[in-house]
Each structure stands twice: as structure tokens, then as C-alpha cells.
Automatic annotation (TrEMBL):
It is an enzyme of class 3 (hydrolase). GO terms for molecular function: apyrase activity; ATP binding; GDP phosphatase activity; ribonucleoside triphosphate phosphatase activity; UDP phosphatase activity. It is a multi-pass membrane protein. The chain crosses the membrane at residues 20-39, 460-482. Its EC number is 3.6.1.5. It comes from the Eukaryota. GO terms for cellular component: caveola. This is Ectonucleoside triphosphate diphosphohydrolase 1. Catalyzes the hydrolysis of both di- and triphosphate nucleotides (NDPs and NTPs) and hydrolyze NTPs to nucleotide monophosphates (NMPs) in two distinct successive phosphate-releasing steps, with NDPs as intermediates and participates in the regulation of extracellular levels of nucleotides. By hydrolyzing proinflammatory ATP and platelet-activating ADP to AMP, it blocks platelet aggregation and supports blood flow. One of its GO terms (biological process) is nucleoside diphosphate catabolic process.
Amino acid sequence: MDEQREMKVKNRTMVRTMIITITVFIVLGFILMVTIGVVQNKPLQQKYKYGIVLDAGSSHTSVYIYEWPAEKENNTGMVQQKHACNVKGKGISSYSDKPTLAGASLKECMDEACEAIPVHRHSETPIYLGATAGMRLLKLGNKSASEEVLKSVGQFLQTYPFSYQGARIITGQEEGAFGWITVNYLSNNFGKASTTFGALDLGGASTQITFVTAKVESQDNTIDFRLYGNDYHLYTHSFLCYGKDQVLKMSLSKSINSKHGQTDIIALEDPCFHEGYNVTMTFQSVFNSPCVGRLNLTQNTFTHVGLGKWSECHTVVRKVFQKSECKYSTCSFNGVFQPPVHGNFGAFSAFYFVMDFLNLTAGSLDKAQSKLQEYCALPWNTIKKMYPHVKEKYLAEYCFSGTYILTLLEDGYNFTSDNWNYIRFIKKIGESDAGWTLGYMLNLTNMIPAEAPDKPLLPYGGYVTFMLLLSFLILSLCLLAYKCFCRPTGSGQRDVI
Ligand SMILES: Nc1nc2c(ncn2[C@@H]2O[C@H](COP(=O)(O)OP(=O)(O)OP(=O)(O)O)[C@@H](O)[C@H]2O)c(=O)[nH]1
Ligand SMILES: [Ca+2]
């Protein structure tokens, strides 16, 4: 009898201990769940912020609008392009004779920006204008005209309700470095151990090459960044006059100069234009740039006649690169230091427009050359019939531009058949255009912190899994507790504790 009673007391004590333990676990589990829930779900209102950057290029101006969730502005990859608008007409540097009209040329795109950004955000939205090689050249040729043009666009932008942050000519180094930041920011390469992409930008009046390197022998080509906790040591160079429009002028002027004095220049035969191409041009349109020397001729015009001979074109284009002098261990061209290229590169702007049109974005360097050779040999009439909707100016120049791009990459930057496939021709990454503007804005708004910002306690996937497991555990414990509380006795009655 005593033994039975002792057993019963022992049993009860055991059940009590179990219940207390289970209760403690339930309470602890509940506290943990609430704590993680609170930490993870800090205020999550999706408020967006905006920024505007005007890319005043040599050939045209584009207005880019960026947006990002307000509370995540320091996280990498958060800023996206919301809208882009191409200003009609030429670049702002073409307003050198009538600078006061430069500002008003931006009206249509600026009105679009007002529509695209919610009115209550207008006053806090920063707006920047950066001018590139066209304005650098105008400044070299006519400083006061370049100042007048900048004044005109600056005054015009200030008539809008945004937060005006200035209109200026950015340096070639900035253009290269911010293009590199854009490409790597959008590719989510920052803040990780992963390697970065180099950036290749080909404009109308300049071209930039930027990549991470260990050793830079010339201070002009060095930029250091500390971004999201990593140090980046960059090589960058911008070649003024080596955008595709200025190189065409240089190449034409070289041919004209080599003919000048021998005969009157009536027709200029050009291997880089299609056979049957025949257009009257003014000398002024070739010699109107600081990239080309002066020429004294009595005639005003000449006929530009296409021959469609790729090998000869290649020879002519190669002449714009001076490869003989180099005072460093290695050079690209014109005596400019460049370490050997390595790693992947993103090539954008005209690199993309041209290579995409010519269908040369994939495949080997040899294949690209042979395909281009075939394309250049097609008569102009055939080309026009094949592409009736393509702007005639672009269409006429693809043979020249393609040849220039292959030559620039191979002879200029020293890419070879072996690393050709490391170049990716890109227009956009996600929804955002590749170019310097995004990097420029991220830098000026301090949205690329030197150190990695704090992350949530758990990544989202881990958080959800953890919460599910915890809920499952608590539920199981509850069931167990219920079973213990309501354990049926041998007589079919429930055991009362
Ligand atoms: N084929 C083709 N060419 C284009 C297109 N858009 C621009 N271009 C040409 O490609 C070249 C480079 O264009 P952009 O990258 O806009 O050059 P940019 O910014 O005006 O010039 P920079 O000030 O030197 O950077 C110019 O010669 C343009 O005329 C396009 O959609 N198709
Ligand atoms: Ca550009």
C-alpha cells in the first residue's frame, strides 16, 4: 500500500516537473518568436526617394530618374532607374553659337521628370547635370562659350521645383570611375568577396577604360575607393578625341591631308564606307574640332565616296593609334600607361549600339573580323534595302564604327583572341542603363558607404524557416503538455493532479 502511494507521489512529482519544464520552454519560445519578429520587421513602409542626373554627352543629352526605397538607401543594389528621356536634337555643346537656347532644349524631358516623380518628393529630389567630352572640347576651343552654355542649362534647371545641385563638366577620370561604380553596383559586386567587372565606355567624343589593378605606374590613372568594407585600387583613363564621331573626323582629316597638295580634293575615296555611298560634305564639318588640325583650302565641299574595303579601312583606322612610344612598362596607345587588361569587362554605350547592330556581341575576335569584312563589302544600296528603318547616319557609319571598335580593343587596349570573350557588350543591367550617371549620383548622395551597413538579424529565407520551425516546436510542446494534463487513468477517468 505504502509502496503504491510512494509510486503515485513520485509520478505526480515527475508530471509536475515535466509540465513546468514544458511551460518554461513554451514561454521562452514565445519570447524568442516575438523578439525576432520585432527585430526583423522594423518599420517596413515602402517610401521611395528620387534623384535626377542629366548626361550632357557630345552627341545628345539624356535625363535619368533614379528611385530607391528610402530606408534602404545604403544597401548595395537598391537604386534603380525609373525613367530615361532622350533630349531631342544634338548635345549641349552644339549650342556654342546660341548658348541661351541650350537650357530650353531640355524642356520636354524635364517636364517628363516632373510627371514621373510624385509632387510631394519634388523639393527634396536632387538634380545634377554632368557634361562630358563634347563640352570638354568646347572648353578647349572656346572657353567663354562653354561657360555660357553651362550657365544657360544651370539657370533653366533651377526653374524646376527640384533640389538643384549644379551643372558642370566632369573629368575623364570621373566619367571612367563612375561608369565602373555603376556596372559593379548594378551587378551586386560590392560588399562581397567576388571580383569586379572592368568598364569600357565609348562615346561620341571620348572613350574610357577602367578596371581594378594591383599596380598603377602613373598617378593620373589611379583612383582608390573604399566601398562597403572593401578597398578598390582602380586604373582609369579617358581618351579625349577617341569617341567614335571624333575618330571619324580624325580619320577623314588624315586622308584629306595626305591628298592635300597632290590634287584638288573633289572626291575622297573611303574604304570604311560602303561601295556606292556618295555624299557631299563640307570641310568645315571635318575640321571643326580641336581633335583635328587646321587646313587652308579654297574649296568648301568634297564628295565622300565609299569603297567598302575592310582591310584598307583597318589600315587607315590603325593610324589613329600611336603605338611606338611608351615610357612605362606597358602602354595602351599615345604613350598612355595601361597595365595588361584582366578579368571580365562590361562594354557599353557605342560599344553596345554598334556591336549589337552588327551581331558581333558573341563569338571569337577572328569571327568578328571576318563577319565585319563581309558586312563592309555589301553595297550601300543593298544595306539601305536591308535596313529601311535605321537612321541613315548610323547605317552609313556601322562599317567604320565596327572597324574602329575592333581596332581600339585589340590594338588600343591590347585585348587578344584569348581574352576577347571576357568582354560583355551590355546596354542595361536589370532595368538600369550602364553609364556613369548612376555612379555619379550614388557618390554625391553618399549612398555608397565605405563600410558595409548593418544587416537584419537573419536573411529573409533563414528568418522564415526559423520562425516555422519554432512554431512547429511550440505546437508539439503544447500537444505534449495537453497529453500529460489529460492522461486517461486505467479506470477510464482522467488523472487529476
Ligand atoms: N547606332 C547607334 N548609335 C547611337 C545610338 N545612340 C547614340 N549613338 C551614337 O553612339 C555614339 C555614342 O553615343 P553616346 O554614348 O550617347 O555618346 P555621348 O555620351 O553623346 O558622347 P561622350 O560625351 O563622348 O560620352 C555617338 O556617336 C552617337 O551618335 C543608337 O541608338 N544607335
Ligand atoms: Ca557618354
